[in-house]
Amino acid sequence: MTCMKRGGIRPGAFVYNVVIGGLCKEKKMKDAEKLFDEMVDRRVTPSLITYNTLIDGYCKVGLLEETFNIRERMQVENVEPNIITFNSLLYGLCQAQGMEEAHRVLKEMEAYGFAPDRFTYTTRIDGLFKSGNVDTSVALSEEANGLEHLRQLAKKKIFKAIFLASKSYFLRFG
């Protein structure tokens, strides 16, 4: 970044996101936050990727207050969350055994129209198990397995329909 700045090259959101992502992976959250602030000061608009990267980084080091500060900033800036945003928040909360708050985030996720995916289920199952709620963890695991079976069945039906449609097309127009 320093070389770019010295050379008169103005880094864009992509460059900032890559460097912020690297800092987060190295658990250098203070440096990532400073770079985020610099990004904003230089009038480079943070994207959903920027916010998700910071949320994920803070969650992975257990700094939940900072995580939710970033989420709040997203809301102020009218940046819509995606499934990655919610899964990162759920991961952080489940690691900290904040299952009530995780349930609230899950409900918010569903209110945004996102259905739980494999990561969502795995994270919640792990969190419930670690917090001593084994029965609910097992029940959720069974629910997830049932949903996965339904997804696989739906995929098979879709592929079969595509195959039959293409076979019919080739027989007709050959």
Give a description of the structure:
The chain has 174 residues and is mainly alpha-helical. It is built from nine helices and no strands. It has helices at 2-6, 13-25, 29-41, 48-60, 64-76, 83-95, 99-111, 118-130, 134-173. Helix 2 packs antiparallel against helix 3 (29-41) and helix 6 (83-95) packs parallel to helix 8.
Q: What order do the SSEs take from the amino end to the carboxyl end, as H and E?
A: HHHHHHHHH
End-to-end CA span: 58 Å
Chain oligomer state: single chain
Q: How would you describe the shape?
A: flat
Total count of strands? 0
Q: How do you describe this structure in short?
A:
By secondary structure, the protein is mainly α. It contains nine helices and no strands.
Question: Any descriptors?
Answer:
174 residues; mainly alpha; 78% helix; flat
Chain-wise SSE layout:
Elements: H1 2-6, H2 13-25, H3 29-41, H4 48-60, H5 64-76, H6 83-95, H7 99-111, H8 118-130, H9 134-173
